[in-house]
Write a structure and sequence with these properties.
Layout lengths: L5 E10 L1 E6 L2 E7 L5 E7 L11 E5 L4 E11 L5
Antiparallel strand pairs: 1-4, 1-6, 2-3, 2-5
């Protein structure tokens, strides 16, 4: 596992709010719309651990989400 900072991106549409939770910590959130949009943030090295990491996508109560893609890409500018 590469524990350098990484960009986490989710391509989704729907209603309500979508929250990204990385290893139990809230990473980002955004309202969902009828159009596919990208939600994301950078998880720094302190958020990622060696071995498996858990990314949870949580939709607000009564909301819905259609997820097209999830990408986790190491930052090129990270040491």
């Amino acid at each position: 596992m590469d524990a350098r900072p990484a960009d986490v991106r989710v391509h989704a549409q729907g209603s309500g709010t979508l929250r990204l939770i990385l290893n139990g910590r809230s990473l980002a959130w955004a309202p969902l719309t009828d159009r596919f949009t990208e939600l994301g943030a950078t998880g720094d090295g302190g958020w990622l651990g060696r071995g498996p990491n858990e990314l949870v996508l949580e939709v607000s109560p009564g909301g819905r989400a259609l997820v097209d893609a999830v990408r986790v890409v190491p930052r090129k500018d990270a040491p």
